[in-house]
Specification:
Layout lengths: L1 H9 L2 H4 L2 E6 L7 H17 L5 E5 L6 E5 L5 E5 L14
Helix pairs in contact: 1-3
Family: Belongs to the complex I NDUFA2 subunit family.
Keywords: Acetylation, Disulfide bond, Electron transport, Membrane, Mitochondrion, Mitochondrion inner membrane, Respiratory chain, Transport
Main location: mitochondrion
């Protein structure tokens, strides 16, 4: 499921979103699904969007979140706390 989402979202990222930042902890259980998603799907997502900024920010103890920056500096975020590797709702920003 996540791979299908990555493929379908791949070419649409830069039309609506200017940057994606994923904040996560390197060791917490709450960030495990995010770490799994990055390990399994980051390369495919980046290959589909080579010029698009997808930033991964690791920090000890931080709650996992996905931040999206849009035109005119508008930003939104969604919690990724305790999500599984499929990350349901990841692209619902």
């Amino acid at each position: 499921m996540a791979a299908a989402v990555v493929r379908s979202v791949g070419s649409k990222l830069s039309r609506n979103v200017r940057e994606i930042r994923i904040h996560l902890c390197q060791s917490s259980a709450a960030s495990q699904g995010v770490r799994d998603f990055i390990e399994q799907h980051y390369v495919e997502l980046k290959k589909a969007n080579p010029e698009f900024p997808i930033l991964i920010r690791e920090c000890s103890g931080v709650q996992p979140k996905l931040w999206a920056r849009y035109d005119f500096g508008k930003e939104t975020n969604v919690s990724l706390n305790n999500l599984n590797v499929e990350l349901p709702g990841l692209w619902s920003l």
